[in-house]
Amino acid sequence: MNTRRLGVMVMLTAFVAVASAAETPVFTVIAKGGHLIPDKLVIPAGQRVKLIFQNQGPGPEEFEIAEMRIEKVLAEGAESFAVLPPRKSGDRIRLFGDFHPDSAVCNITVQ
């Protein structure tokens, strides 16, 4: 393969990667006072989704989606994220705070 063709392929691959990252929907879930805000979330079907987790305290919180094996333990004031794979319309996902499993719940619906 000649150098010019290889260069064009590398540039196209980089462009596609940047374009894909820019199109990923982003949603933020905040842990505060033993609750998750928002407590309901609707995400688009058929695409990857980035969830940003923020812990506004007090104390640590563990964000968990058991069915997807996602766990993020955050100190007060910390932030992290997870990227969910594409899901089918009608799917339901239960995100909860493991340190407050009864009150810190965000029910995610895929549409």
In short:
The protein is an alpha+beta fold and 111 residues long.
Structural description of this entry:
This protein is globular. The termini are far apart. The strands form 2 sheets. A 5-stranded mixed sheet has the order 3-9-8-5-6, with no helix packed on it. The chain has a 4-stranded mixed sheet with strand order 2-1-4-7, with no helix packed on it. With 111 residues, the protein is α+β, with helices and mostly antiparallel strands. Helix content is 19%, strand content 44%. It has one helix at residues 3-23; strands at residues 26-32, 35-37, 40-43, 49-55, 61-65, 70-74, 79-84, 92-97, 105-110. The chain has 1 helix and 9 strands. The longest helix is centred in the first third of the chain and has 21 residues, at 3-23.
Topology of this protein?
Layout: H1 3-23, E1 26-32, E2 35-37, E3 40-43, E4 49-55, E5 61-65, E6 70-74, E7 79-84, E8 92-97, E9 105-110
Parallel strand pairs: 1-4, 3-9
Antiparallel strand pairs: 1-2, 4-7, 5-6, 5-8, 8-9
What portion of residues belong to β-strands? 35-45%
Contiguous runs where pLDDT drops below 50 for at least 5 residues: 10-19
Number of alpha- plus pi-helical segments: 1
- What's the Cα radius of gyration? 18 Å
Distance between the termini: 44 Å
- What strand order characterises the main sheet? 3-9-8-5-6
- Mean pLDDT over the full residue set: 87
Could you say which structural class the secondary elements and strand pairing correspond to? alpha+beta
Largest sheet: 5 strands, mixed
Outline type: globular
| Total E-strand runs | 9
- What is the H/E order? HEEEEEEEEE
What is the helical fraction, as a range of percent? Answer: 10-25%
